[in-house]
Automatic annotation (TrEMBL), chain A:
It is found in: Nucleus, Nucleolus. It holds the Pfam family ECR1_N. The lineage of its organism: Eukaryota, Metazoa, Echinodermata, Eleutherozoa, Echinozoa. Transmembrane segments: none annotated. Its main location: nucleus. Coiled coil: none annotated. Gene3D superfamilies: 2.40.50.100, Nucleic acid-binding proteins. It comes from Stichopus japonicus (Sea cucumber). This is Putative exosome complex component CSL4-like. GO terms for biological process: RNA processing. GO terms for cellular component: cytoplasm; nuclear exosome (RNase complex); nucleolus. The keyword Cytoplasm applies.
From TrEMBL, chain B:
InterPro entries: ExoRNase_PH_dom1, ExoRNase_PH_dom2, ExoRNase_PH_dom2_sf, PNPase/RNase_PH_dom_sf, Ribosomal_Su5_D2-typ_SF, RNase_PH. This is Exosome complex component RRP41. One of its GO terms (cellular component) is nuclear exosome (RNase complex). Component of the RNA exosome core complex (Exo-9), composed of EXOSC1, EXOSC2, EXOSC3, EXOSC4, EXOSC5, EXOSC6, EXOSC7, EXOSC8 and EXOSC9; within the complex interacts with EXOSC2, EXOSC7 and EXOSC9. The catalytically inactive RNA exosome core complex (Exo-9) associates with the catalytic subunit EXOSC10/RRP6. Exo-9 may associate with DIS3 to form the nucleolar exosome complex, or DIS3L to form the cytoplasmic exosome complex. It comes from Stichopus japonicus (Sea cucumber). Its main location: cytoplasm.
Length: 191, 246
C-alpha cells in the first residue's frame, strides 16, 4: 500500500469513521493532521472504529504528566532529581523533579530518612504526583513497584537488591539501605 | 509618485512581475543538525533563517512558566549585512522587539500550545538579506522550522504582504515598492481554515479598496502555502527514502 504523506492542517477524515490518535486533532467533527508525516490507520476488530495516527520521522517529544511513571536520576542529597524519561520514552532534555520525604514510602512515613532511601546517582522509578511548584515536578515512590532500580555501591559496583529496603554490593558484600523497587517481571529485558 | 513608476502601462511591476505574482520562493528544511528544527527561505531577495528548540524546561525567570500551555519565546534579528548599508544592530531594539511580539502572537495561535504545559519552545529567526516582507519571510521560515522540529501545529502559517498602486492591488511587495510610501497590508493566515492570525496595515488605505487588497494578500498566502506544502511533502518523502536505505 502506498503511504500517504500528510501535512499540518490536512483533513484526514470524520470523527464518525475514525478515532483521533497521535499526531492529529479534532475540529468541527473532523480529524486534522498536526504533524508532517505518514498517515496510518490501526486495524481493529469488527464493530470498532479504526484509529487514525500521523507518524512523524522525529519522535514526538513527551513531557511528564500527572500520574505518569518517570525514570529519574537522583542528583542531590535532598531528593531533588532529574527526570530522564516518561513511560519508557526518553526525554530530549531533563526536567527537574523532587521527591519529598513524606512521599518516599507509603507506611511509617515519619520514620523515613532520605539518606537511607536514595543516594545521588541512583536511577529511580517514580510517579508524578503533581506538577508541583514552579520549580519542579513533585514525584512519589510510595508504591511497591516504585523506587531504586539501579544503584552503585561505594566500590563502584552495581548493587543487587535483597529486600525492599536493602541492597548488597556483590564485591564487598556491604549492605546498603535503599527504597528498592519491585520491578515487574514483564518490564525486565533479558539479554 | 516621484520618478519611479511602480506599475507600467503594460501592467508590469519594476522587477517584471505582474500584480498578482509572488517572488520566487526557495526553501530548505533541516539546515542545522544541532537544532530540533530549522529552515531557510528565500523570497526573491529576502532571505531568512529560522531555528526552533524545544519543547524543553523553561529557562530563565520561573515566573514566566504557563501552567496550561507552552511558553513561546521568539527572537528576531537582522544580520549586519542584511541591508544596503552595513549597520550593527543591537539585539533588543524597538523594531525587533515589536517583531518578536508579533511572531509570538502568530505562533501562539497556530501551535497546539495546550499539549506542552510548563515547557518552552524557542523560535529564533534571522534576516540574512532584507528586501521587503521581512515579517512574512520570518513567519514562513519559522513555520517550516516548526514542522521540521515535529511540533504539533493546527495548520501552516503563511504570511504575505500586499500593496496598492495606481488602483491595482499588488502582492508580495519588495523593498522598493514598500519604501514608496503606499499602503501595505501584512497578513498571516492559516490557509486550510481561512483564519487570519495576524493583520497589519501600514499607511492609509481607502475602505473601498480594502477588500480587494485583502483578497490579494490572502491569495498570496495561499500561493505560498502551495509552495511550502510541496516542499514539506518532498522533505518527508526524501527523509523516508534515506531511512529505508540505511
Amino acid at each position: 500500500m502506498a503511504e500517504t504523506i500528510c501535512i499540518p492542517g490536512e483533513r484526514l477524515g470524520s470523527v464518525d469513521h475514525y478515532k483521533a490518535g497521535e499526531g492529529t486533532y479534532v475540529r468541527h467533527g473532523f480529524i486534522f493532521s498536526n504533524l508532517a508525516g505518514y498517515k496510518r490507520t490501526t486495524p481493529v476488530d469488527d464493530g470498532e472504529i479504526p484509529e487514525l495516527t500521523v507518524v512523524s520521522r522525529k519522535q514526538s517529544s513527551v513531557i511528564p504528566e500527572v500520574r505518569s511513571v518517570v525514570t529519574v536520576k537522583s542528583t542531590h542529597k535532598f531528593c531533588s532529581c532529574a527526570i530522564l524519561g516518561v513511560e519508557g520514552k526518553s526525554l530530549r532534555e531533563t526536567f527537574r523533579g523532587m521527591i519529598r520525604r513524606e512521599d518516599i514510602r507509603a507506611t511509617e512515613k515519619d520514620k523515613v530518612e532520605v539518606y537511607k532511601s536514595f543516594r545521588p546517582g541512583d536511577i529511580v522509578l517514580a510517579r508524578v504526583l503533581s506538577l508541583g511548584d514552579a520549580r519542579s515536578y513533585l514525584l512519589t515512590t510510595a508504591e511497591n513497584e516504585l523506587g531504586v532500580v539501579l544503584a552503585q555501591s561505594e566500590a563502584g559496583v552495581n548493587l543487587v537488591p535483597i529486600s525492599w529496603c536493602e541492597m548488597i554490593c556483590p564485591k564487598t558484600h556491604v549492605k546498603e539501605l535503599r527504597k528498592v523497587a519491585k520491578v515487574q517481571p514483564d518490564y525486565i529485558q533479558t539479554t | 509618485m516621484a520618478g519611479l513608476e511602480l506599475l507600467s502601462d503594460q501592467g508590469f511591476r519594476l522587477d517584471g512581475r505582474r500584480p498578482h505574482e509572488l517572488r520566487k520562493i526557495q526553501c530548505k528544511m533541516g539546515v542545522f543538525k544541532q537544532a530540533d528544527g530549522s529552515a531557510y527561505i528565500e523570497q526573491g531577495n529576502t532571505k531568512a533563517l529560522a531555528t526552533v528548540y524545544g519543547p524543553h524546561e523553561v529557562t530563565g525567570s520561573r515566573s514566566k512558566i504557563e501552567h496550561d500551555k507552552v511558553l513561546i519565546n521568539c527572537q528576531y534579528s537582522m544580520a549586519t549585512f542584511s541591508t544596503g548599508e552595513r549597520r550593527s544592530r543591537s539585539k533588543g531594539d524597538r523594531k525587533s522587539q515589536e517583531m518578536q511580539l508579533h511572531l509570538k502572537k502568530t505562533f501562539e495561535a497556530a501551535i497546539l500550545t495546550q499539549l506542552y504545559p510548563r515547557s518552552q519552545i524557542d523560535i529564533y529567526v534571522q534576516i540574512l538579506q532584507a528586501d521587503g516582507g521581512n515579517y512574512s519571510a520570518c513567519v514562513n521560515a519559522a513555520t517550516l522550522a516548526i514542522i521540521d522540529a515535529g511540533i504539533p501545529m493546527k495548520d501552516f502559517v503563511c504570511a504575505s504582504t500586499a500593496g496598492f498602486v495606481s488602483d491595482t492591488p499588488i502582492v508580495d511587495i519588495s523593498y522598493l515598492e514598500e519604501s514608496q510610501g503606499g499602503p501595505e497590508l501584512v497578513v498571516a493566515l492559516l490557509p486550510k481554515s481561512d483564519q487570519i492570525v495576524e493583520f497589519q496595515v501600514n499607511s492609509r488605505l481607502h475602505l473601498d479598496n480594502f477588500e480587494n487588497v485583502l483578497d490579494m494578500a490572502v491569495k498570496g498566502c495561499k500561493d505560498i502555502h502551495a509552495v511550502l506544502s510541496r516542499a514539506v511533502k518532498e522533505n518527508v518523502s526524501e527523509l523516508a527514502s534515506h531511512m529505508n536505505k540505511t
